[in-house]
Write a structure and sequence with these properties.
alpha/beta, Immunoglobulin-like, Spore Coat Polysaccharide Biosynthesis Protein SpsA, Chain A, seven-stranded mixed β-sheet, five-stranded mixed β-sheet, 24% helix
Length: 414
């Protein structure tokens, strides 16, 4: 009896010892794995510190094998490092070449590119960033390098729209603009949304579900004091101009660089109307034949003031916003004012709002006999207006398309 009990106690003791060892080993393994876990950035704008904000890294094969990181930086930033996370678990620190864009407009923060050469022998998917090359710095947040490898082109035209802000509520004009982009040939639209009304958000979600719209959150106002002014002046407390518009446009350019044959850089209240052609495909085919070495096409804005209505197509009165079909008088465009662009994105390195900063091949200005930028907006000076009903060429398609969306999202009251 005693021998049997002693044997049982020994067996239990061995079992308990093995259990403790197994438990301790698993705890150590879990702790080690937890220490190796890296969280992948999901926000559009990520603060590295209060002077450096990372938007996204993009593979840059045009300058050798390198990575271009779209960022927003304070002018005082002089040193940053790209950290490549190799599949071998090695981390390689590469000092970034900082290229602060020239169009900061006097604000202390501006759009910047961080250029980092790929380290040889490093198979990577993710990278992180640091203000120091110290290997003791904890880098937990990873960024996936996009466009690596470059995807095949899947769209002819993508429209990049500037930031929506200030609880933007121009519902009707948003619908009309997007439907016009579709009629003219766009199969993709990318919009950066800081703040809009519930009704505009409802419209954007509709087009996201339709598959034509990418809505990118743009919470710039959580990080910096934003300004509605494009130019900084003494005493202005804001830190970055026009809600970081140039950073959003550059990110949109790189998002669509290898997805779209052409990219248009516009505001939501602007529509590029061909003059001689019916749509953008016919227009660009003609332009490429006559200007084969041109990558950037610029066109001047023609403002149609919303203060005056002169059309009978006044419908959808229950929907908030501007009805562009009721404003067919434009201000004379004596100068080449507020131009916008259509570009071959693979030939552009940096863009501003009204012109490209760095690009390959040629840029040209399109005359009024080729294109017209229809810009329907509020304007104080409404004298000496010229009748111009070119937008009405599209009303046979535009009106039923808009009507269909409105009846679905905002059915008229009984």
């Amino acid at each position: 009896m005693w021998t049997s009990s002693r044997h049982t106690l020994c067996t239990l003791s061995v079992f308990m010892s093995l259990a403790v060892i197994f438990y301790t080993y698993n705890v150590e393994i879990r702790q080690k794995m937890r220490s190796q876990v890296r969280h992948v950035a999901t926000d559009t704008i990520t603060a590295l510190d209060n002077r450096t904000f990372i938007i996204a890294p993009y593979y840059e094969p045009r300058l050798g094998q390198s990575v271009r990181v779209i960022a927003i930086l304070h002018v005082s930033v002089e040193e940053l490092y790209c950290i490549f996370h190799c599949s071998s678990s090695e981390k390689v620190y590469i000092r970034a070449e900082i290229d602060l864009h020239s169009d900061r407009f006097g604000f202390p923060y501006g759009t910047a590119d961080l250029l980092c050469a790929e380290p040889s022998g490093c198979n990577y998917t993710y990278m992180s960033f640091s203000s120091t090359n110290s290997t003791n710095t904890s880098q937990d947040l990873l960024f996936e390098v996009r466009n690596r490898p470059p995807p095949p082109i899947s769209s002819n035209f993508t429209v990049c729209l500037s930031t929506l802000y200030g609880n933007y509520n121009n519902v009707l004009q948003v619908i009309q603009s997007i439907e016009m982009y579709k009629i003219l040939g766009s199969s993709r639209i990318t919009v950066y949304n800081t703040n809009c009304s519930q009704d505009v958000n409802k419209v954007l979600r509709h087009y996201v579900d339709e598959g034509i719209l990418d809505m990118v959150p743009w919470p710039i106002d959580r990080h910096l004091q934003t300004s509605k002014n494009w130019m900084h002046y003494k005493g202005l407390p804001t830190e970055i101009g026009y809600f970081g518009q140039t950073a959003a446009l550059n990110d949109c350019l790189y998002r669509n660089m290898y997805k779209s044959k052409f990219v248009l850089l516009l505001d939501i209240d602007e529509i590029l109307l061909p003059v001689k052609d019916r749509d953008w495909s016919s227009m660009m085919e003609s332009l490429q034949k006559t200007h084969p070495n041109t990558s950037v096409f610029r066109f001047g804005s023609h403002v149609f003031p919303t203060a005056i209505r002169n059309s009978g197509l006044d419908m959808w009165s229950h929907v908030p916003g501007v009805n562009i079909l009721t404003h067919l008088l434009r201000r004379p465009n004596k100068n080449f004012t507020a131009p916008k662009m259509i570009v071959n994105p693979r030939d552009v390195f940096q863009t501003s709002i009204h012109h490209t900063l760095k690009y390959r091949r040629n840029a040209m200005i399109l005359g009024q006999d080729t294109t017209m930028l229809f810009h329907c907006k509020h304007l104080k000076n409404v004298s000496d207006l010229i009748a111009d009903d070119r937008i009405m060429r599209y009303n046979v398609s535009l009106v039923p398309n808009v009507d269909k969306v409105i009846h679905r999202l905002f059915p008229p009251p009984p």
